[in-house]
Each structure stands twice: as structure tokens, then as C-alpha cells.
Design a protein that fits this description.
Pfam families: NIDO. Keywords: Signal. This is NIDO domain-containing protein. It comes from Exaiptasia diaphana (Tropical sea anemone). The chain is mainly β and about 300 residues long. The strands form 3 sheets. A 7-stranded antiparallel sheet has the order 2-7-8-9-10-13-14, with helices on one face. The longest helix is centred in the middle third of the chain and has 14 residues. The two termini are about 25 Å apart.
């Protein structure tokens, strides 16, 4: 049954038009001039234990140190170790980790990996604003600590073409009680190394068999190559997550529009969002009981821009 009624629609902007990724100068500032430490070039290496100045809540536990790994991982308790291309999944192991890009990276002949702790007021305020926008249920979140790790122009292990590189970043934030992680993807041009093992993106609690794949997963079937052009917070190349709870919570990235629509469960509707100057093709994925009441709320997911 199709009913005409005034409807408030919350759109989760998962897929964004692939026109541009986040610009390099929009990443959290990194490099020697910003006080970063550069990880020694190589493969399968790590920073060694880094004692952090604030405890970081992560998936139900609290950590006071971490490791930055060449292979695109920030690990807790222990370093990630060697990239094992015989495993079906690297992220589903027993290492507690944040993995913006878990792949077989080699910086012997190019690229650099930078990291630092940060308590600079301006950067913390800017990052906190982004968290509040992505997670409206935390209107008073104010970070007191940040950790920034950046993989800049990193090639794959034994790559025959060192111009094929990835640049991405992970930013950890906490106010002492809650924690959030931001992944920034400036450029992803490779996802497999010489053995053909695919990179992975996500999180692992390190216990209880809980891990979370960002892409692909049950709510989005996209390639890792798409990550610079898509988002869960309505900004291409930016992905945000709440990480202190026992499960991962994604940023809502919601925009709100209203109007009169012909809506039927599991149907597709098309309308214009003025702020985007484009049409959106929307498929209904979940809804409350549809009735003729005004101002019902229907959650839909944007499939693509047309």
C-alpha cells in the first residue's frame, strides 16, 4: 500500500559521488614539522611500545600504551607482528587493534609512517567538533588527548611500481571516558601485495572473538578502493567510529530533509536535496509501521547519486 504523507527522512550518507577524496591538507597535520616521530623504514616492523599520556578506552577495556605497525595497524597489548599472507583474515586474529588499512606495506624504498600524541588545544577543539557532528548524542564531547598516525605514500611489499602508493591516517580521541577513531583516506591505489592477499579495514577487541570489518560488511558492499570517495559521516574519505563500548558504533552522518513522498516499504524514491544540488536515489531499508500519521520517521540509506 502506498500512502502520501509528510515524512521526516534521515539519510545515512554511505555512498558519495566519486569526484574527490579528502585533500592532503585536510588531514590532521603530520610530519617532522608537526613534531611527529617517523617509524624506521622496513616491513613487518613496529614502533615498539609507546606509553600514552592518557588512558584510551577501547572495546570495553582501557589501555595505557600502544604500538604503531608498518602494516597499517595501531595495536594494543602487543605489536601486530608479521603480515601472514597465508591467513584468510588478518583482522580476525587475537591482536587488539585499530586497522585503518591492514595490508602488507614496505617502506624500504619509499613512503613514510609518522605518529605523535597531541594535546594542542586548537586541534582537539576541531576534532571534538567533528565528533559532535558525527555523533549528535554526544553534544558535549571535548577531547583531552589525540593520537595521530599517518601512512604517507606507502607502497606494497615487493611492489614493482613504487608510484602506486596509499596515503591514509588514523586519529584516536578520548575525553577520558569515551573514545572515537577517525580514518582519513587521501589516496588508496592498491589493496593486495605480491601474494594477492587483500587488505582489511576495521577493529579487533583481541578477545571474545569480536572484530568489525568496515568494508565490505553486512551494511555496505564496497571496495576498499572506494573508501577515499565514500564516507559514513557525509565527507568523502572520512570515516568515524565510537570505540569505547563493547561493540563499534559508526558515525551517523545524517542530513535531514522533509517533504511529501510516495513511500512503500522496500521501494525506491527519488528527490532533490538542495544542499547537494543533486538527485538522490534512495532505497528504504527499515521503517516503523507506515501509517497516515504526519511526521513519521523513516530511516533510509542512500544507494547512489544520480
Amino acid at each position: 500500500m502506498i500512502i502520501m504523507f509528510s515524512l521526516l527522512i534521515l539519510i545515512e550518507m554511505i555512498l558519495i559521488s566519486p569526484s574527490a577524496s579528502i585533500a592532503l591538507d585536510e588531514l590532521t597535520p603530520f610530519g617532522k614539522d608537526h613534531g611527529d616521530i617517523m617509524l624506521a623504514p622496513g616491513f613487518d616492523g613496529d614502533s615498539g611500545e609507546i606509553r600514552i599520556t592518557r588512558s584510551f578506552p577501547f572495546l570495553g577495556r582501557t589501555f595505557t600504551s600502544l604500538y604503531v605497525d608498518i602494516n597499517g595497524v595501531i595495536a594494543f597489548e602487543k605489536a601486530f607482528g608479521e603480515f601472514d599472507d597465508t591467513k584468510r583474515s588478518q583482522i580476525a586474529g587475537t591482536t587488539s587493534m585499530i586497522a585503518p588499512f591492514l595490508g602488507d606495506i614496505d617502506t624500504d624504498d619509499g613512503g613514510a609512517i609518522w605518529y605523535r600524541q597531541n594535546t594542542t588545544k586548537q586541534l582537539l577543539e576541531e576534532a571534538s567538533t567533528d565528533v559532535r557532528n558525527a555523533f549528535p548524542e554526544f553534544p558535549h564531547f571535548s577531547a583531552v588527548w589525540m593520537f595521530v598516525a599517518t601512512w604517507a605514500k606507502v607502497p606494497a611489499f615487493l611492489s614493482s611500481n613504487l608510484s602506486i602508493t596509499n596515503t591514509f591516517q588514523s586519529v584516536l580521541l578520548t575525553d577520558g571516558n569515551y573514545s572515537f577513531v577517525r580514518f582519513n583516506y587521501h589516496k588508496i591505489t592498491w589493496t593486495t601485495e605480491t601474494s594477492g592477499t587483500e587488505a582489511e579495514i576495521g577493529f579487533n577487541a583481541g578477545f571474545s572473538n569480536y572484530y568489525y570489518n568496515v568494508a565490505p560488511n553486512s551494511i555496505r558492499n564496497i571496495s576498499i578502493l572506494d573508501l577515499p570517495y565514500k564516507s559514513n559521516v557525509n565527507k568523502p574519505g572520512v570515516w568515524m567510529f565510537r570505540t569505547d563500548n563493547i561493540t563499534i558504533q559508526e558515525g551517523s552522518g545524517q542530513i535531514v530533509v522533509s517533504g511529501d513522498f510516495n513511500v512503500c516499504s522496500d521501494s525506491t524514491i527519488t528527490f532533490t536535496v538542495a544542499s547537494l544540488s543533486s538527485h538522490l536515489n534512495i532505497k528504504v531499508v527499515s521503517s516503523p509501521f507506515i501509517s497516515s500519521h504526519f511526521n513519521d520517521v523513516l530511516t533510509v540509506k542512500a544507494l547512489h547519486l544520480i
